[in-house]
Write a structure and sequence with these properties.
This protein is an alpha+beta fold. The protein is built from eleven helices and 42 strands. It folds into six domains: 65 residues, no CATH class; 82 residues, Immunoglobulin-like; 100 residues, Immunoglobulin-like (Sandwich); 74 residues, no CATH class; 101 residues, Sandwich (Immunoglobulin-like); 179 residues, Aminopeptidase, CATH 3.40.630.40. 20% of the residues lie in helices and 35% in strands. The strands form eight sheets. Strands 13, 20, 21, 22, 23, 24, 25, 26 and 27 form a nine-stranded mixed sheet that branches. Strands 12-14-17-16-15-18-19 form a seven-stranded antiparallel sheet, with no helix packed on it. Strand 25 and strand 26 form a beta hairpin. Helix 3 packs parallel to helix 5. The chain starts with a helix and ends with a helix. About 3% of the residues have low confidence.
Length: 694
């Protein structure tokens, strides 16, 4: 018995001497880091996962370092991982830097100004937002140009403020972080150039760049050539075409689109006449010359864009070859003068929200710079020349009859087939529960035959063409249930529309068996929105995406990640992966940035974006969840047709802007792992709510 007691005492003594840690449970890194460092350092160190003895010692030593040194070592762990060599280096550094307490003085706070990032930076709006980070301490004070910043979160050290910047001068920005008697100062300068300024009345002049057209135009009989310039106010303005002595009057415009203001904007138009157009060919390029006159003064300028007049006979037919060909509607009732436009003619455009199918044929009615002008109904559109090929041997305009509609329904989709005999142009208007096709170059039969059955289809209605669009037909396809995606394609010359049916959802576990693509935005060379420190949008959204991936998998979903590392990923590949896997959902995760000149203090919080109408519900549900459970302000649900990852109607898709990177209220959540996990959980709950609502 005595021998046993002695052995136990010896064992206890040995354990106390050597502190055998191999018998102890690993320590959770997030629990151990809590309260020791600013949130941004905790983000760096979270990669340690469960802590062993060496890692715990490393963190304890790191806690005693100045902030700048903490940042250096924490960043090293984030980039290259922990190592014993790093611990030894930290120990050595501490030995050389240690000093008796009576020698120590109060340290000046660290300071990083994330934006503006350099001196001489040109900005596009006022007020200017200035943001960055300093030591996380209530004892620190941050000023910009001697004014205390409007937002400072002492928990993270992140700050944000606004400064009014005058135009046309190099304006100083002085940022100071102070604590006690110590201060750190960073100086920058910015330049806010004038986008627009009225020209003086004298001397009489025409602006060198505020002129339209900037690129060559090809017009036919009946088309209008618009000429727009900026010049000295209160003058007589005219323009001439080529060698003609005929002058076309221009009027000074008072009702100006933003950002134009003041006087001296002149506009005139010329309608192309029959005698301008040669038979079966086109003219050589004609110079456009603008002249201003006042009293005995006169000044002229040749415009960079020239004009050619073409007969339009025989018709010029092109066929779409690009797989992702965009088409842009021309906005005829406005103009842009201070910058370039798509066709170089001064007319703004709006992108149509889906791609034009390869094989589609269109009649070209003119040229605007590098774009071809086409007419659909009563509206003009532009399409890029590089996305089409000339059909030199085809002289007939695209035209077809329509006499039969075929229906077929399977377990997963409804197929509607139209017996078109040519690949005519068409537009799609989508609503949550129906599609409307507008076909151009079609003549429908008096009695259209409908073959097959599709119980999910509520109606197919073909409207009589309106007088202005005599060769068009509008076909409405109404469904008995909300859309879950749709596709469109040519099979030969037949137009086929596929409507995806709603998935079968289990109320007990709506995520079981669902295929979900998670797209952490940006990555690699694309940092996205910059953060106040060294962590940017690409880092934050990747962490949220990983948390979301894990949560969805735990619920039985099949998850595809567009990236799991800090790498470049092509925008088209991101959404195309959803098509390849026949996904039920595509979620692109981002963190927002403010536009220059925005009210970055008061406008912040959550936002979701969508393109097709049937995705609006998904966007609203996720936004509702974010506002309710994270608690930042609601900004908006925003319809956007220009975002690549939202331009595939086959898959329900939304883009989630979790919060704003630069705003201290927002990045408190974005930069901390526990809140990144919470963002992921809220997005998952939004997905569940969406599936249950179907």
């Amino acid at each position: 018995m005595k021998r046993t007691i002695c052995l136990l005492l010896i064992l206890i003594f040995i354990l106390r001497i050597f502190s055998i840690t191999s018998f102890s449970s690993p320590v959770n890194v997030r629990e151990y880091l809590n309260g020791k460092f600013p949130a941004i350092f905790s983000f760096y160190l979270a990669s340690l996962e469960d802590l062993d003895t060496y890692e715990t010692e490393f963190i304890d030593l790191l806690e005693k370092l100045p902030t700048n040194e903490q940042r250096t070592y924490a960043r090293e762990v984030y980039k290259n991982g922990f190592s014993i060599e790093l611990l030894d280096e930290l120990k050595q550094w501490q030995k050389t830097e240690e000093a008796p307490s009576w020698q120590k003085t109060e340290e000046a706070p660290s300071l990083k100004v994330a934006y503006p990032s350099r001196s001489g930076q040109r900005i596009g709006g006022s007020p200017l937002f200035i943001f960055g980070t300093t030591d996380a301490s209530p004892a620190v004070k941050v000023t910009v140009n001697d004014e205390e910043v409007k937002k400072f979160d002492f928990r993270t050290g992140n700050f944000l403020t606004l400064v009014e910047v005058p135009k046309e001068e190099e304006f100083p920005i002085v940022v100071v972080a102070s604590r006690g008697g110590e201060r750190t100062l960073i100086e920058r300068t910015v330049i806010y150039p004038r986008l627009w300024e009225e020209l003086p009345r004298n001397p009489l002049t025409i602006h060198s760049t505020h002129i339209q057209p900037k690129q060559d135009q090809v017009l036919k009989e009946g088309d209008k050539l618009k000429v727009i310039i900026q010049g000295s106010p209160e003058a007589e303005a005219v323009f001439r075409i080529g060698d003609s002595s005929n002058e076309v009057s221009m009027e000074e415009v008072n009702d100006l689109p933003l950002p134009l203001e003041g006087q001296g904007i002149y506009m005139g138009s010329y309608t192309v006449q029959a005698e301008d157009v040669p038979f079966l060919r086109e003219t050589s390029p004609q110079i456009i010359t603008v002249t201003l006159r006042r009293e005995d003064k006169e000044v002229s300028r040749e415009l960079p864009g020239k004009v050619r007049f073409a007969s339009g006979l025989p018709p010029r037919i092109v066929e779409v070859t690009g797989n992702r060909t965009r088409i842009y509607q021309v906005k005829e009732n406005s103009f842009i003068l201070h910058s370039s436009t798509l066709g170089g003619d001064g007319l703004p455009t709006q992108m149509v929200g889906y791609y034009i199918l390869p094989g589609t044929r269109l009649e070209v009615i003119g040229v605007a710079g590098n774009y071809l002008r086409v007419n659909l109904g009563v509206k003009n559109y532009l399409i890029y020349q590089g996305d089409v090929k000339e059909m030199g041997n085809v002289i007939n305009k695209p035209f077809t009859g329509l006499s039969k509609i075929g229906l077929n329904e399977t377990k997963n989709e409804v197929e509607i087939r139209f017996n078109t005999r040519e690949c005519i142009p068409f537009l799609i208007e989508d609503e949550p529960q129906q599609l409307r096709l507008i076909l151009y170059g079609v003549k429908k039969s008096e009695n259209i035959i409908q073959e097959g059955e599709a119980p999910s289809v509520q109606k197919i209605e073909i409207e009589s063409p309106v007088q202005e669009e005599s060769d068009a037909a509008a076909i409405t396809i109404g469904m008995n249930q909300p859309l879950a995606g749709f596709d469109y394609r040519w099979e030969g010359t037949e137009l086929v529309i596929s409507v995806r049916k709603l998935p079968q959802i289990s109320e007990d576990n709506p995520l079981r068996g669902r295929i979900i693509v998670i797209d952490p935005g940006h990555g690699g060379e694309s940092s996205g929105a910059i953060g106040p420190g060294d962590i940017h949008e690409k880092d934050v959204v990747l962490e949220i995406g990983k948390f979301l991936q894990s949560m969805l998998k735990d619920k039985g979903a099949e998850v595809i990640m567009t990236r799991t590392k800090d790498v470049n990923v092509d925008l088209y590949e991101r959404i195309d992966s959803a098509l390849e896997h026949n996904a039920d959902l595509f979620i692109s995760i981002h963190a927002n940035a403010h536009a220059e000149g925005a009210d970055a203090i008061n406008y912040h919080g959550h936002m979701t974006l969508y393109n097709y109408a049937y995705n609006q519900k998904l966007a609203e549900i996720i936004l509702d969840n974010l506002v309710e459970r994270i608690g930042l302000p609601r900004t908006r649900v925003w319809k956007r047709s220009d975002l690549v990852v939202l331009r595939r109607p086959q898959v329900p898709s939304v883009l989630v802007e979790a919060a704003f990177m630069m705003h201290p209220d927002d990045n408190w959540y974005l930069l901390q792992p526990k809140y990144q996990r919470e963002f992921a959980g809220v997005i998952m709950n939004g997905i569940i709510d969406y599936f249950l609502s179907l």
